[in-house]
Amino acid sequence: MPSVELDPETARERLEAAGVAIEPGNTDHERWRAERGDANAVAYDETVVVQGSRPTDLLALLRGEQGGRAHVYFDGASRGNPGPAAIGWVIVTGDGIVAEGGQRIGETTNNRAEYEALERALEAARDHGFDEVDVRGDAQLIVRQVTGEYDTNNPELQKRRVRVRELLAEFDRWSIEHVPRAVNDRADSLANEALDDG
Fold it and tell me: Which residue has the higher pLDDT, 6 or 110?
């Protein structure tokens, strides 16, 4: 569970400024609680603990991180194609890994899993407040569809491409590039670990 060493009142102000509702704590030890997306935060005297399947939904707001550039890596995996699927993603800056995640997403195709991973990674980068993203993935088809070099006749993939382009448009600058699997090894590992854990 991620925790943020932060004065609970400062944390409360940051969340309220972002439109997040604050509720009373459930016990005498909890000062307050908040929820956004798939994350919830619980404030204690000197720390705020963030829980849930997507803690990045709150972490960036609590840390007050705004602006800057990040490298975003994504990978989707499907065993059976379609079959059990999972995603992995990593956000990296000059300070190292800022956030990462991996989870099962049910049964789907490999291409849909790749798009899902890319969407989650971009949402996390946006929620962390980055202005610029350089996106890297080892799924050449997805990269070329997003750039417009390739088209798709699959309605589901068309919808996902539109969603990815909407997310990319929220950044001041972005790039997306195909890289070898060895360069994308952390995101690949997170996706496969999530599949193995399932």
Answer: 110
Just give the CATH number of 69-197. 3.30.420.10
Instruction: Output the six-digit token pair for 126.
Output: 């946006």
The residue ranges of every structural domain in the chain are: 3-63, 69-197
- H-helix segments, 83-184: 110-127, 140-147, 155-169
pLDDT digits (tens, 9 = 90+) for 52-92: 877 766 777 787 655 689 999 999 999 998 999 999 999 99
Strand order in the sheet with 3-5: 3-5, 47-51, 39-43, 32-36, 22-24
User: CA separation (Å) from 13 to 20, 39, 51, 111, 180?
Assistant: 10, 18, 19, 41, 43
Q: Tell me the sheet residues that pair with 70.
A: 133
Structural domain 3-63, CATH architecture: 2-Layer Sandwich (3.30)
pLDDT in the model for residue 193: 95
Closest CA to 105 of 194, 38, 21, 13: 194
